[in-house]
Amino acid sequence: MFTERIFQTAEELMAALRAGEVSSAELTDEAIARIERDDTAVNAICVPDFDRARAAARDADEARARGEDRPLLGLPVTVKESFDMAGLPTTWGMPPHRDFVPAEDAVQVSRLKDAGAVILGKTNVPLGLQDVQSFNEIYGTTNNPWDHGRTSGGSSGGSAAALACGFGALSIGSDIAGSLRTPAHFCGVYAHKPTLGLAASRGMVPPPGPALPVESDLAVVGPMARTARDLSLLLDVMAGPDPLTLGVAHDVTLPPARHERLRDFRVLVLDEHPLIPTGSAVRAGVQRVADALIDGGARVERHSPLLPDLAEAGVLYTQLLISGSVARFPVEGYEQLRIRAAELSEDDQSLDATRLRAMVFSHRDWMEANSRRELHRHAWRQLFAEFDTVVCPITPTPAFPHDHDPDPLRRRLDIDGVGHPYFDQLVWAGVATMPGLPATAIPAGRSPEGLPVGVQLIGPMLEDRTPLRLAELLEREIGGFRAPV
């Protein structure tokens, strides 16, 4: 019963709790026992909070005995380390802030607690959330549950690994460069990057910064789970504006999915990007999804003149991402970057050169890039008048071996035996991130080495339920999560 229940869906566990078949205290003890047994090898839970979790579980059982019910009442979950939780450290993996303990919960932690969730602890992240792997000097390295010599992904790598190992039924993470989708792809679980601005992010801020109700450009917070339906369950808890700002006047009502049956979906399938090759294992995963769509009667196309220029989109995404991420650099660091950027040849249009130039963007440069982004958003609106969803890779490869070279520019991503600049792999994540579109990461089979392979389903802005519904239907056709142990 222990093993069976550990990997049940959140929906199944909530039904069992409501039926009185199991208590929250029992589920919580089972999850903690699983973590204590298996996490030494994986290192997903970097900040355990077991005493408070057990107390919260007892409170949940007492509340249910009084007749109360809430969406997640009594359900054990985890939270990415970067979310503030009162009484626990929030470090973002940065050693100077190892002792920073916020006084209040992030808005999403509050929403989890208000929904009745039992928080088992916090999950590991890379230094400053700035990597496709999850390792830092404070908490060490999170290993991929399928192959401990490989990364679990980043920056929500701890959350994805925790779900794959049965350490709680749900988790929350964040995404600006695939940080929800890439770990899900690498670990064989599900994740949803919501439409930009759909879920408030206050309290997901680098320490020791104040938790102000400011929505960052490109970045979102979102749900992770072991099934598509569980993603929807958690998204309903997370969605909505900050109660300190737009939440004063606005409520969120997402439109329903465009279709309920697979055969009614119109899908554009992509497996090639002009800025980076797609590895054979990922290409096979995309094809597996395309075949399921065709077998289910969906209308599937491989090309469309309505698709925005992916090369231009990749450059634009890189400019917006990098210019925002380095905006807080000290002035002396900025001057050094400006000198380096000025030395670049005008003929150098590589993504490495684009990143360096973006590091010294002026406000005028950023405004021009933002104007081009609006043109891309308009092009996506036109595309989604013809299609309901776009299926494409998340990264070009399955999980790769740990690479902790302190200079990321020296790292190389091996794609079918050919090395490529490490950060070029982010361009597929940027397809949805740059225009702010929702994207659902789903398992799409295994590589020849047995590693998970995922794809993303990109949907129209604020129509998050459309890719989520397609994810549910595909789960029935091609299968979904499978435990690595």
By DSSP, the count of extended strands is: 17
Mean pLDDT: 96
The amount of helix comes to 25-40%
Spatial arrangement of strands, main beta sheet: 1-3-2-8-10-9-16-17-13-11-12
CATH superfamily of the largest domain: Amidase signature (AS) domain
> In total, how many domains does the architecture comprise?
2
Give the helix tally.
15
Keywords: Hydrolase
InterPro entries: Amidase_CS, Amidase_dom, AS_sf, FAAH2
GO cellular component, one term: endomembrane system
Organism: Streptomyces spectabilis
Tags for this model:
485 residues, alpha+beta, Amidase signature (AS) enzymes, 2 domains, eleven-stranded mixed beta sheet, two-stranded antiparallel ribbon, 15 helices, 16% strand
